[in-house]
Amino acid sequence: MIQSLFILSPTGEVLIERHFRSTLTPRTVCDTFWSRASESLHHHGGISTASSSAVIPLYDSVPPVMEVDANDATGQTTSVYLFSILRDGLSYLAACPCTTGHDGPETPPLLVIEFLHRIADTFVIYFGNPADEAAVKDNFSTAYQLLEEMVDYGWPLTTEPNALTDLIRPPTVMAKIHQAISGGYHSSTVLSEALPTGTVSNMPWRKAQVSHPNNEIYIDIIEEIDAIVNPNGYVISSEVSGTIQAQSNLSGVPDLILTFNDVTLIDDCSFHPCVRYSRFEKDKVVSFVPPDGGFELMRYRVSRENSNGGGTAHPRNMPIQVVPRISYGRLMDGSGANHEEVRGSISLSVTARSISSLIYASSRRGPLVIEDVSVVIPFPKFVRTASLNVTAGTIIYDEAGKIAKWVIGKLDEKKRPQLNGTMILEDGSENDVDDRMSSMIEDGEQPPLLVTWKILLASVSGLNVSGLSVTGEHYKPYKGVRNITRSGTFQIRCH
User: Fold this and answer.
1) Domains identified in the chain, total number
2) C-alpha 328: how far from its chain's center?
3) Which residues does UniProt call coiled coil (predicted)?
């Protein structure tokens, strides 16, 4: 299983290093990984220096599994599988042995990747969102203790937040003050001295003797659209996946049954451990005893055949349209001759479209409003600098990473923000400049735009909750359900 675990900062610094087996993985594997990651245009590239008020989201193009050679203490070269994920600017790496032997069979890749995401999710729960470099450094002792409890000899052990919070206290202001006064780390400020009540029951995801003054449960049906759109607004490819997020504040040990209006819309499901999977296979209902607090109840893909007739897993009319216009050309002097300096121009227009493939809730009122709209604009490597202006929102250009982020915020049908700007290319001879521009057009070097957005009370599939019953307790809780549609990896091609 997992031999060693590393957490790297956005600059490649090793923040946390933990070994779980007798074989120690050298840090040279981190150097090998970082040399590969630095080659990727969309990995880090200096984005961490951007303003914290408008952090540019990063999407990773580094392979999630790599085979890396490592030299052990005796000088012998061995190979390990290096699993990696990128979350909040931090790279989570897990080194696992390549071959079968005394350590057991080859490690399942998806198990390791899911476990790394579970570690990152736990850091968010403990340290807040985002769980970035500063959060890990400020709570280093807590992060290290969490890894101690979550992994046992390289195997995932305790990953449920309710069980972890019983074992390790979440950081508080008073605990940090006590640590500063005492002059350093003390186990009593992190570890809980009481026996964890949740881990001795048959439901480790739920604490015992939970009590709330107001019993309520909220459910969000969130559907994400991954799409590639051409400059004219035509959808080249799209896929829709969904998650059901729940916030449970229920006393005692309630037993819940969740039913849907049309279960055939759901395909390829995965559930939280609290869900009775056999009951879903038999009756197509979600029966579960919920954890206390927020959790992800289930994840699914929207079926390609939508029996509802109103939506599809491949929407052709998106609620937002981004039209890019990017061109490069040589400046002309007063005599009409070509100048050595080559400039580029860029213009973007963003429009909200009420006519789309989305299905809106009956409780929705008023015109279409798209929230949290932003556009990430990666520039080619040969662009030296860019000057950008927008008619709405704010624009941040990162000189080192060659990436700009345009934060628009709320967008409606009446608001049509525009971006205009110029680019100056790197110096070079006339032939070099012409070769760069021609190769860029032929090879499609202009990276696509990455757009993020969110629409409340809307869905692609039309999936909704038809019933939510609570048994095992005498109270009648307040129940809230809403639909949210948002962008996943939503790319706009520029050519």
Assistant:
1) 3
2) 34
3) none
